[in-house]
Design brief:
This protein has nine helices and four strands, in the order E-E-E-E-H-H-H-H-H-H-H-H-H. With 293 residues, the chain is α+β, with helices and mostly antiparallel strands.
């Protein structure tokens, strides 16, 4: 027998996607107020042994999550407005363009903007160490401002409620309690393995990794950040996994605190109807027989 699966998920439009090793389950609240649960087979490429190696698995998990998450968002958006066909499946090029756009926007906001601003201030902030610290500080500010701005959008706030419901549902399962709304309601909406925490760790780790890379010329400074992103994501993933395995230790518990604080922005307290949807998604993936792997 293998080790128990650590389930994770994602808030989608009027619903929640929960995933196991081989399948995901997408639960969506339909316009007629019913909950529809759809199971979807996951990509097998990410399960190859070579992609499970430390450092490599972090970047692979990021790419795989983008693909699975984009498909789940598209599906849920169509079903939540009553599209009986569930919407057309995104083709290869549509998926590539969507993920490419997301990556491009991320590179502009979190690589191009901080790196460019730090470079412009090179006359006032000199030295490789101080330049890298300045760039990292700007990247952190941009990241927080981005989260803060989108958290103010009405539609996003509802998604963040489903995000909180997803965490409560997972806590309920991990505690061994019955998957009921009453049980889920008592758990916190902040979870140590959340993707929000992962992104924050990526930003922090990048400060230390980029400190060992040259700053000039500017084109190399920008290119090096892009080339090192898989390595940064790999380290961040290992830090997140390590901290989640040592939650009981006072020596390591502090590692998860910044991520939990950030989740106060990316989650909202869900209502009972949203908890019901999150629990339906979790039941859907549990019923697919992935409890042990």
């Amino acid at each position: 027998m293998g080790k128990p699966v650590q389930y994770g998920g994602q808030a989608v439009i009027e619903g929640v996607m929960m995933r196991g090793p081989r399948e995901s389950a997408i639960a969506v609240r339909l316009p007629n107020d019913e909950i529809e649960v759809t199971n979807v087979k996951l990509n097998v490429w990410a399960t190859k042994p070579v992609f499970k190696l430390p450092l490599i698995r972090g970047f692979v998990a990021l790419i795989d999550s983008l693909i699975v998450g984009t498909r789940a968002l598209t599906f849920s958006a169509n079903r939540s407005i009553g599209d009986d066909e569930g919407g057309e499946e995104l083709g290869f090029w549509e998926m590539a363009l969507t993920i490419g756009f997301a990556f491009g926007l991320g590179l502009v906001l979190f690589v191009g903007l901080p790196t460019g601003m730090a470079h412009l201030l090179k006359g006032k902030v000199t030295g490789d160490v101080w330049q890298n610290l300045l760039e990292g500080a700007i990247r952190l500010v941009v990241f927080f401002l981005y989260i803060l701005i989108i958290s103010r959008l009405k539609d996003i706030q509802r998604v963040f409620q489903y995000h909180g419901a997803e965490h409560k549902a997972i806590f309920t399962h991990e505690s061994g309690q019955d998957l009921t709304v009453a049980n889920a309601r008592s758990f916190p909406r902040l979870h140590p393995r959340c993707g929000t925490s992962f992104l924050l760790i990526v930003v922090v780790v990048s400060i230390f990794v980029f400190a060992f890379v040259g700053l000039y010329p500017l084109w190399w400074r920008l290119l090096s950040r892009v080339l090192l992103m898989p390595f940064v994501a790999g380290i961040a993933y290992e830090v997140l996994k390590f901290s989640s395995r040592h939650l009981e230790s006072p020596w390591f518990r502090w590692l998860i605190v910044p991520g939990l604080l950030l989740q106060k922005l990316t989650t909202r307290e869900p209502d009972d109807a949203q908890l019901e949807v999150a629990l339906a998604a979790l039941k859907g993936v549990l019923d697919s027989g992935q409890e042990l792997t």
